[in-house]
Amino acid sequence: MTINWSEQRILIFAPHPDDETLGCGGLMHKAKAAGAHVFIQFLTVGDTADLSPKGFSTAHERYAEIKEVADYFRWDDWHVAFPGDEYHLKLDQVPRFELCNAIERQSPLSIANLKPTVVLAPHRTSYNQDHQVTAEAVHTALRPSNNALRHHPDVVLAYEEAADQWRYEASASPNLLVELAEHDLDAKIAGMRLYGTQIHDHPHTRSELTLRSLAALRGMQSGVALAEGYHALRWLA
């Protein structure tokens, strides 16, 4: 079964700027080329201590990176739901009720406002607390109910990042594989390079070689050269 990407309204939930590219960069490029609409709902962004020579990246730097990446991938829109250091890397301290309300109906890019056909979110097995609560909040916001009363996307997928495997209960291999052309993967790498504060040299989970290697592995598992892996949570055919 294949998806006609040209007909889709895709809403991607990213805990932080770069998660959408790490998990869905190839799919974003493939879908936009086909004519899809792509929206990115970031949950939070703030100043970040890191392993760069400077030792930190500022929220101002990261907003500048978002704008470059948005232009590169030609996103239809993007938004940050909980900006600022009081939320960044602290989403596990925000009540689930507030997170779910933003995702479900209060954000400009909420499920109720956009009525997406495809929703993508991080996988709950990530070691990162912001990723975990984002995954759980999206899961709650998309709970089963009467489709006449609440919008239900036809397809709900959890995307993977290489770092997600660093858990003793790491998830099983993805059960949905999206084939990528070489130019889709090249676009994913190019988009990640625009996140200059976040990409690293190998060996690192956010290195170019890691992204290429994971794409080759997922491609091999589906009998093609390159692919991105996803976990299907809902698929209405």
UniProtKB/TrEMBL annotation:
It comes from the Bacteria. GO terms for molecular function: hydrolase activity, acting on carbon-nitrogen (but not peptide) bonds, in linear amides. GO terms for biological process: glycoside metabolic process. The keyword Lyase does not apply. Transmembrane segments: none annotated. Pfam families: PIG-L. This is PIG-L family deacetylase. It comes from Nocardiopsis gilva YIM 90087.
